[in-house]
Amino acid sequence: QITTLINHKDKPKRSDKTLQAIQRVGQAVNLAVGRFVTVGEAIANENHELKEEMSVACIEARRAGETIAQLTDVASLDHPESDSHITIFTDKTGVVKAARLLLSSVTKVLVLADRIVIKQIITSRNKVLATMEQLEKVSSFQEFVQIFSQFGNEMVEFAHLTGDRQNDLKDEKKKARMAASRAVLEKCTMMLLTASKTCLRHPDCESARINKDGVFQRMRLALEQVIEIVTDSRPNGENEMAPISIYSGIKEFKNKVEGLRENLYFLSKENLSTMLEVILEHTEDFTDSAYTSHEHREHILELSKQAKMELEQLVSVWMQAQNQKTKDLMEDLEVAILKTCQCMNELKREVHNAATSLAAELLKYHTDHMVLKALKITGVEGNLEAVAEYTCKLSEQKEQLVEMCRLLRHVSGTEPLEITCIHAEDTFQVTGPQIISAAETLALHPSSKIAKENLEVFCEAWESQLSDMSLLLREINDVFEGRRGEKRVYLSLPRPGKHNANLKALKPVKLDTEEQAKIAKLGLELHLLTSDVDSETEKWEDQENEIVQHGQGMSSMAYSMYLFTRGEGLLKTTQDLFHQAEIFATEGTKLASALHTLSDQVHDDDKPLLLLEAEKLVSMCKQLQTTAKASAQGKTATFTKVDACILKTRNVMTLLCQLLPLCCKLLRKNKAGNGYLKPAPPWKEDRIRTGTNARTPERRVDTFGIKSLENHVTNMTFLESK
């Protein structure tokens, strides 16, 4: 609204409608500022250490809002020349100054409020740590129950604060790290309960003490990581070393190689060679692994050798092109770029297949949980020799799963999924030895119910992580195939020459700065529509529903088209955009077909409306396809075609925003109780929405399993202490 005021056109004739609109905007800004400031003042009153700073910022914001309202009080000015007071028309500079002051003061309020939230989380963490120290030192069940009850309440508070913070994080990497830490705290809270009870029951048992100490240590590390994320800091000023994966290395390498089309001098051949060396070093994780098949190992080695040869050829042509930029040399360079990128794509696919086939095989093999079952049985029998035998087998299984996680990280495709792989690796590394110590405790005390319960809890954590790995594997495959990822952008996009044997015929064109400015508003509208569509699709419980999948695909493509209007994203040229528009239209036609299928399932009263909307969609997609395929010669004609494609895409997305809730309504009406829709979550619930839809470890962490935890506390009786 402020932007609207600043950018209004100074026309000599001002209609009543224009004057009233300007006044409404000014009043709306002032009212919004008033509501915002009221909240800021309430926060200031509750936090005395920041009260003065917050109050000053609130006063500045309120004053700026009132100034804007005064300057836009122009609705009664039918004859502006008779005006006796200053308005937006006579003093536009005043509005600009007021707007700057408003944005500055609002930012101050937000920063101060953020500092308060961070302080609340740190304070909550400190309470949890203090209570944990007390829990470590207790010597009786009665004392343990009292302190654990307090600990449970503090963990609930910490869960709510960190859940809200996780929702607010914009960085997907930090969001994934926060989710991983909270997942650890969820599982460890239950482990802490049973491990502590076991230690209290068997105070002289060394394996029980080791088991309990491991849980406390892991919880402390998770709490520390949450604070690192919240405060954006590392202990002792260390810099966080981001893990380098083969996938991200290849992505960066290809970007540099393709950048040679635009600029032959922006990097050195040594830089490119070093980047390839790093990638090939990481492929040794696959070729050196005992779990990589002979076939995959041979293919990876062959492709590594081929990549070196392709780069040598590319460097040779590149150096010649720097000295003599002829037409033939530039075409040779284009061929070398395409061949190098193609080789890297094949290498990426090979390591992906090696990692995912190993993962699928291991997960299938371990689904029966035979080793865990055997440990439980032999533990209850008190058979120490058999327990030792099965703990060795569990250690072997742990090594296999840890290696699987390391290889999957290389091909995960997005940073959040990389972090999920690292979290899974850590979980197997830590939980394996904890299961072993819990099994040894049970074998030493086979009649102990609490030792048996403790082993069950650790085995459940292992089984849960294995189940999560199946979901993670599916996400990694989805990203690789372009179905999901960072805003689910399509990964297989056309490059100049890739879909056309005649390199001379294809002239990649980018929008210049002026053209980007002209189309920016249309692009922004498209962006807002993709958010609306994503919001609608996420309301569906059944994410495999055909309508949802087509809607998500169309939203993904529309988003990449929006990025193109900003000169960003994977669509680099107008040719890319037109190709994407064709695929978008095809996806829309498939959605219309799915709507026809749905119409057969709904009541006769609803069918005409659904069919009418489906026909509209078909018609609009045909128009878009025709526009995208039409030839355009020259700069002006090409820009006109770009504008038309974006406009028609926006129109389709507008219709899609109406169609999705309509389909939801009809499904609810016709298939009530079948679980097509999610229930609306309560506002305090801290589920997160990832931009990537990646299944990071945030599931089931909303309140750290506090209900089941409290049930355990309630069921504890002092008879056990006897």
TrEMBL record:
One Pfam family it belongs to: Vinculin
Keywords associated with the record: Cytoplasm
GO molecular function terms listed in the Swiss-Prot or TrEMBL record: actin filament binding
Protein's UniProt keywords contain Cytoplasm: yes
Keyword Membrane among UniProt keywords: no
GO cellular component: cytoplasm
Biological process, per Gene Ontology: cell adhesion; Rho protein signal transduction
InterPro entries: Alpha-catenin/vinculin-like_sf, CTNNAL1, Vinculin/catenin
Coiled coil (residue ranges): none
Highest taxon of the lineage: Eukaryota
Localization per Swiss-Prot or TrEMBL: Cytoplasm
Family (UniProt): Belongs to the vinculin/alpha-catenin family.
UniProt protein name: Alpha-catulin
